[in-house]
Design goal:
alpha+beta, seven-stranded antiparallel sheet, elongated
């Protein structure tokens, strides 16, 4: 025991430095492991471009809210789809008086908050037999909560809306 104490006393500072280096390597290894796990949310790929247009997007969102339109976004349940297939997303839009809003043109953005690699755009098409009803075929590759944003125009009037939608986990094999 005396030999060990003499050795520790003689090489105290090198051992402290080596200890700090090992602690730093261990902490960084843990951080890398936590950051690269597959279940960790990924950063949005175009975050810088979104940041540049943040003020304009907030103004467009405020103008959209002032219109008072009511939107319902649903993903029909019960049908079976393969993970690689596109699934229908139904959107109904009514004005503040309850009348259907027709003539919207735009797209829907499906974003998976838990895995942004699954995000994607798809066009929004008006259903000719149902005024105020629109449909899109979106690639929804995972069950759970999705954030659906519609970005549309009716003539010169922009309209955006965002909602969280639950997608069931039934898939075709």
């Amino acid at each position: 025991m005396k030999k060990f104490l003499a050795f520790a006393s003689a090489y105290r500072w090198p051992m402290i430095i080596v200890g700090f280096l090992l602690m730093s390597i261990t902490a960084n290894g843990i951080l890398v492991y936590v950051a690269t796990r597959p279940d960790v949310p990924q950063p949005i790929s175009d975050y810088y471009d979104r940041a540049l247009t943040w003020d304009a997007d907030r103004a467009k969102l405020a103008a959209s809210r002032e219109l008072g339109w009511k939107v319902d976004i649903t993903v029909p349940a019960g049908e079976q789809y393969a993970l690689s297939e596109r699934r229908p997303v139904d959107v109904s839009v009514h004005d503040s008086e309850g009348k259907p809003v027709t003539g919207l043109q735009g797209r829907i953005f499906a974003m998976r908050p838990a895995n942004t690699n699954l995000n994607g755009f798809s066009p929004l098409t008006e259903l000719p037999h149902a005024p105020g009803r629109y449909r899109s075929l979106a690639r929804l590759n995972a069950p759970g909560l999705w954030e659906m944003s519609i970005d549309t125009y009716q003539g010169e009037t922009p309209f955006i809306y965002t909602a969280r939608v639950s997608v069931d986990g039934v898939v075709k094999r």
